[in-house]
Design a protein that fits this description.
The protein has 426 residues and is mostly helical. The chain has a single domain, classed as Preprotein translocase SecY subunit. The chain has 17 helices and four strands. The longest helix has 36 residues, at 389-424.
Length: 426
Amino acid sequence: MSASSQTNDLKNRIFFTIFILAVYRFGTFVPIPGIDPEQLQTMMSGNQKGLLGMFNVFSGGAVSRMAIFALGIMPYISSSIIVQLLTGVSDYFKNLKAQGEIGRAKITQITRYGTVLLATIQGYGLSVGLQSSADLVINPGLFFTITAVSTIVAGTMFLMWLGEQITQRGIGNGISLIIFAGIVAEIPRALVTTFELGRTGAVSTIMIIGIFVLLVGTIMFIVFMERALRKILINYPKRQMGNKMYGGESSHLPLKINQAGVIPAIFASALLLLPVTFSNFSFSDNDALLNISSFFTQGQPLYMLLYASGIIFFTFFYTSITFNPTETADNLRKYGGFVPGIRPGENTALYIEKIVTKLTTIGALYLTIVCLMPEFLIANYPIPFYLGGTSILIVVVVAIDTVTQIQTRLMSSQYEQLIKKTKFGK
């Protein structure tokens, strides 16, 4: 492929990604049939805190509009979590993973079936909750339930398909970009709301300035931590082939502080959303449901504890399934590489594992701090959820990953062009 064709391919991928994200944004404004918009606006105005607010963030505002994408991509993420956990404990899933491409295809299929099941359960809970609120549904009953569940499940599956199309034919990770697009699209409205709070006196000017200083500081901190690397020196011995000496060079094994990226925050949020879907979408006067929901609001100890625990767990879990120190050590030994002062093989694997564990601990603490610190502000002040730590983390990390992919493709194109010029002497 020529450099020109590679550049055109990159442009096509970018335009394709933008088109798919535009389709997604359009879907967040298409309402579920049978909902009274005025009653919906009245009801949602008092239910933007806690996990309902988080659900609205991950759905790009579709929950507040009760759109066909109201569940967003969360059922797919929840299904992925369950399948990945089973991969670590079930022999059946371990065997599938070991089968290579065929096994991965089977795991993907199971994940999709799980998505349909979870979307159906959550969709039914949502439809029941909507009908329990007086005058919200124009014609409540079995027909509305069937219509709402079918629409929601179809919307979730279509959204999953859009994400897969971006991953295969666009730029970046499709699922992460969909969440990214939903958050970014709602941030301007969140900023306007914040300034309006300052104008009306609900929040002081000093507090608003402090919030934006904290916001900028958080972004800088995230960028620094995401770019930070721990480099392990790798030496390669000299080898004589004929009359020439080869090797004797040194390189580095780069290890990121946060190898799990934004996945732990998304997974932890998904787990928090899953068990309380019914309680948060049931707007009736059921005291038990209201009590359960009250524990999952910003600033509540249980909410903070579960969220922090989920982030830490998934940071270690996801790092363990994406980076294998033993495999890395075997590859180094295979190509003659070694860490100075460390014997190749098992000792090298233990050395790398020790470093990865330390880095993952730092990464888990960093993610926990970024995600939880702004939550206290949101709990005590009427600040929009879109300015929270989780939202900013997702936006910054996904933006960095996407830009990195674009730069990699551009460098590949430039490198190929340079090789051709050198080869033909032009």
